[in-house]
């Protein structure tokens, strides 16, 4: 049994020169046939010198938008999200000159910022622990000089601050 897809393709290819003869010389010609939601009958037949980017530009001028679902947009979004994630992890950079490099760089900058914040947080915690230890030691010294319950307001405030910090 012959393939109807093949026969239609051949008919379109045979008709392209006749159609192109009626177009201005600098026009790109494309014939596209598809079944919405199915890929069993996709035909994209450009003339030999045609550029697919020009076809996309023409479709956009006719109202094609990025709204709505399609596999191409999902693939682009997956690449962007992946580049951001890999950049944040400083892993698997895109090839030199690849358009995803910008997104990888954004992710890398965010990863560096997070690393800086994590280091700063660790330093703050170390400083807090050191200050807490010094305050606890100071309170022990004060308690030896003036037992709890007989201390002054500073001693009470220091003990309350230590309790709050260790809670």
Keywords:
167 residues, mainly alpha, 63% helix, 9% strand
Structure report:
It is a single chain. By secondary structure, this protein is mainly alpha-helical. Among the domains are: 1-64, no CATH class; 127-166. It contains five helices and two strands, in the order αββαααα. The chain has helices at residues 4-20, 52-61, 71-89, 101-145, 153-166, and strands at 30-35, 38-46. A two-stranded antiparallel sheet has the order 1-2. β1 and β2 (38-46) form a beta hairpin. α3 packs across α4 and α4 (101-145) packs antiparallel against α5. It is rod-shaped. It starts with a helix and ends with a helix. The mean pLDDT is 86.
State the gist of this model:
The chain has helices at residues 4-20, 52-61, 71-89, 101-145, 153-166; strands at residues 30-35, 38-46. With 167 residues, the chain is mainly alpha-helical. The N and C termini lie far apart (81 Å).
Report on the biggest sheet: 2 strands, antiparallel
Helix-strand pattern, N to C? HEEHHHH
The helical percent reads 55-70%
Cα-to-Cα separation, first versus last residue: 81 Å
Radius of gyration: 35 Å
User: Going across the major beta sheet, what is the strand order?
Assistant: 1-2
Per DSSP, the total helix count is: 5
Low-confidence stretches: none
Structural class label: mainly alpha
Oligomer: single chain
Number of extended strands? 2
Percentage of residues in DSSP E strands: 5-15%
């Amino acid at each position: 049994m012959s393939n109807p897809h093949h026969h239609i393709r051949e008919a379109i290819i045979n008709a392209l020169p006749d159609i192109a003869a009626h177009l201005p010389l600098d026009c790109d010609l494309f014939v596209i046939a598809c079944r919405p939601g199915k890929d069993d009958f996709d035909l994209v037949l450009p003339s030999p010198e045609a550029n697919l980017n020009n076809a996309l530009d023409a479709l956009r001028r006719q109202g094609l938008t990025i709204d709505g679902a399609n596999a191409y947009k999902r693939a682009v979004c997956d690449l962007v999200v992946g580049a951001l994630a890999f950049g944040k992890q400083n892993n698997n950079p895109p090839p030199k000159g690849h358009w995803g490099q910008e997104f990888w760089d954004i992710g890398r900058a965010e990863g560096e910022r997070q690393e800086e914040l994590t280091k700063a947080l660790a330093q703050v915690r170390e400083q807090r622990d050191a200050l807490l230890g010094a305050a606890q030691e100071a309170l022990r010294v004060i308690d030896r000089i003036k037992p709890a319950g007989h201390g002054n307001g500073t001693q009470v405030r220091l003990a309350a601050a230590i309790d709050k910090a260790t809670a």
